[in-house]
Design a protein that fits this description.
Blueprint: H1 3-25, H2 28-44, H3 46-51, H4 55-75, H5 96-106, H6 110-121, H7 126-133, H8 137-159
Helix pairs in contact: 1-2, 1-4, 1-5, 1-6, 2-4, 5-8, 6-8, 7-8
Keywords: DNA-binding, Sigma factor, Transcription, Transcription regulation
InterPro entries: RNA_pol_sigma-70-like, RNA_pol_sigma-70_dom, RNA_pol_sigma-E_actinobac, RNA_pol_sigma70_r2, RNA_pol_sigma70_r4_t2, RNA_pol_sigma_r2, RNA_pol_sigma_r3/r4-like, WH-like_DNA-bd_sf
Pfam family, one: Sigma70_r4_2
């Protein structure tokens, strides 16, 4: 992959991938950093990306794995950065419905959350989600079904809708 092709790939995918990883992990700043790091690694492996059937999936998987690794390091007791000495970060305003969706997704089991994000937000077909996650298609279908049901209940509770109905608004 030449530099100009990589630049086009980056420009076309960065925001979409950041949104997808954000939906999976629930932290926008962390998602941005992980996607940036994943693209840096993709640049180092750009010859490999030429042969990859889905280079965007490679970057998304790398970013997600980076996020998981970072989370594990923090859980092991690494001191979090001192906010008093770090630069202030401004984040663009986010739609309230998006915030509610991410909050509801955070309450789902990780496997269901990942399947829902890859299928509905990344718009991947079930077979591609199964290949990316490394489980059978039937498992992904079950995770999607259970995840949608749980998500609908969580969002209905969040909006206070009687009878669990979902608004089209």
């Amino acid at each position: 992959m030449e530099a100009s092709e990589f630049d086009e790939f980056y420009t076309a995918s960065f925001r979409r991938l950041t949104g997808q990883v954000y939906a999976m992990i629930g932290d926008y700043d962390e998602a941005t950093e992980c996607v940036q790091e994943a693209f840096a690694r993709a640049w180092a492996h750009r010859r490999k990306l030429d042969r990859a059937e889905y280079p965007e999936a490679w970057v998304r998987t790398t970013a997600y794995r980076l996020a998981v690794s970072r989370w594990r390091r923090r859980r092991r007791g690494e001191r979090s950065p001192d906010r008093a000495v770090s630069a202030a970060v401004t984040v663009p305003a986010v739609d309230e419905s998006h915030v509610a969706l991410v909050a509801a997704l955070k309450q789902l089991p990780e496997a269901q959350r990942q399947a829902l994000v890859l299928h509905h937000i990344a718009d991947l077909p079930v077979q591609q989600v199964a290949a990316e996650v490394g489980v059978p298609e039937g498992t992904i279908k079950a995770r999607l079904s259970r995840g949608r049901a749980a998500l609908a209940a969580l969002l209905a509770d969040e909006t206070g809708l009687a009878g669990g109905g979902v608004s089209n608004a």
